Amino acid sequence: MGAPTMIKPKETKMRIIKRESNDTPYPIIALLVDGVTANRRLEHHMLESIGIRTEPANGTAEAIEILSTGVNFDFIFVDFDLPITSGPELMSQMRAMGVRGKMVGMLENFNNHNLQMFHQARADACITKPFTQDRLQEVIGILRRMFGM
User: Fold this and answer.
1) Contact 47, 54 (CB under 8 A)
2) Which end of the chain has fewer CB atoms at under 10 Å, N or C?
3) pLDDT tens figures, 120-143
């Protein structure tokens, strides 16, 4: 008898369908701040696939630079773990600058302490990472209803 044959699990790939932002009757523009390039690219593609035009930022300095140009965003997604400044600190800075976009905190380590930090920074919502398209649409739907968008 030979060695037992091992069955290799079938690989499944995530399929992201990219749509043009004008495919949705209510075009939404979002700023996406995440210091990890691979995460930021995935999040960017997921947001774009549900009809949200997205401007990615690598960290605090880049986000502040983009916001200082006067561009208005409907949503601002901010990762908790940013290099140099934390996500909640960046949110506080943006609020002090008068930024009015709906801010969504992104958390890998979803615990009460981290959640509380985002709430103190006046986040409008928080979402766990990695997120799914369904979860993103749910959060955006709630915020749109809350703020009449």
Assistant:
1) yes
2) N
3) 999 998 888 887 878 778 877 777
